[in-house]
Specification:
By secondary structure, the protein is α/β, with parallel strands linked by helices. It contains 11 helices and 10 strands. Strand 9 and strand 10 form a beta hairpin. Helix 3 packs across helix 5 and helix 10 packs across helix 11. The structure holds adenosine-5'-triphosphate (ATP) and magnesium ion.
Length: 323
């Protein structure tokens, strides 16, 4: 009998099992019709043939990705695979050299970053991007800055329209703070909170405007298992509540398997697989990307009969963990 496989990702976080057993996932929220935030096929986001290089360094090339309303779509891959660059291109921070990004009914060669809020797009960053000296409440409120309609003059003069808007924004922020369990720390400077709570504040800032498309770049990085479980619950609840399309970059494959409806795998800037979590974890190319196996070896690893045949699951603890 061959030694059982424990798939580990190589690189920064190393030694994490790639492919734990399946877990039930809630069905995607069906897309209601007629929204300007979705195209006719119900997709909120379509990426077509998107390519980006920095000089001679290819960040990613010819990427296709489609995410529907209510879908949590994980983007995974080893360090440097191009995951963050893809989100940065989808949000207009980077200018791709080729391809299109379609958000709802609008198609762009480069998404206008200044219109993200109007397009119903919000994101979090791989490295926290909070106003550390401001309170949790003000950080969450910052997620509504682009939605502010009242001009500066109206705000300074305290005109009724500006006051109404400020009240509505405060109520929206309080609601998100409550849902994310941040009420007890709402007045504290964000920078004084433990890291896991700061990640939660950033999620709150992204959620407060009610985005149709939410892009989360490693929202659980550096968290304890308990914090990850909580964050998983918050993300799922946000999806269930809003029906937003969610792109989730995550290295913890256990989280990916439990939380996502579909998974796209990048390796060295190329899309090597897209499918359900179960399909992707059985894909020899994915296994090879994580283990650095040659093609033939990866085929053997994906073959249920080759790992002892317990349940057709290639993820078993064993000697390969040390690889
Ligand atoms: N602003 C930039 N300037 C130059 N090269 C960049 C820039 N951003 C990313 N790259 C390069 O593009 C490639 C993809 O990087 P990216 O950060 O997108 O990977 P990633 O999949 O998010 O990795 P990680 O899991 O480590 O976060 C890498 O080779 C990286 O060095
Ligand atoms: Mg990244």
């Amino acid at each position: 009998m061959q030694p059982a496989l424990r798939l580990v990702r190589t690189g920064r976080d190393g030694n994490r099992p790639l492919l734990p057993g399946p877990a039930p996932r809630p069905a995607a929220v069906p897309a209601p019709g007629g929204s300007p935030h979705r195209d006719r096929a119900g997709r909120v986001l379509s990426v077509e043939g998107l390519s980006l290089a920095f000089g001679g360094t290819v960040a990613f090339a010819e990427i296709d990705l489609a995410v529907g309303a209510g879908e949590i779509h994980a983007v995974i891959g080893p360090n440097g695979a191009g995951k963050s660059s893809l989100i940065n291109a989808i949000t207009g921070l980077y200018a791709p050299q080729a391809g299109r990004v379609r958000i709802g009914a609008e198609s762009f060669a480069r998404v206008p970053a200044g219109r993200l809020a109007a397009l119903g797009v919000a994101r979090t960053f791989q490295n926290l991007a909070l106003f550390t000296g401001l309170s949790v409440r003000d950080n969450v409120l910052a997620g509504l800055a682009a939605a502010r309609r009242a001009g500066l003059g109206a705000q300074i003069l305290g005109l009724p329209s500006a006051r109404r808007e400020a009240r509505a924004h405060r109520a929206a922020a309080e609601a998100v703070i409550g849902r994310l369990g941040l009420a007890a720390v709402a007045d504290r400077p964000a920078g004084s909170l433990p890291y896991g709570l700061q990640k939660r504040v950033e999620l709150g800032r992204a959620l407060v405007a009610g985005p149709r498309l939410l892009l989360l770049d490693e929202p659980m990085a550096g968290m304890t298992a308990t914090e990850k479980a909580e964050m998983t619950g918050f993300i799922r609840a946000a999806r269930d509540r809003s029906g937003a399309a969610i792109v989730l970059i995550e290295h913890d494959i256990g989280v990916v398997m439990r939380l996502s409806d579909r998974v796209t795998v990048l390796d060295h800037g190329r899309r090597i697989a897209t499918g359900t979590p179960a399909e992707v974890r059985a894909d020899p190319a994915v296994i090879a990307a994580y283990l650095g196996l040659a093609d033939g070896e990866a085929d053997a690893a994906a073959d249920p009969a080759a790992d002892g045949g317990a349940d057709g699951d290639v993820a078993e603890d064993g000697d390969a963990a040390a690889a």
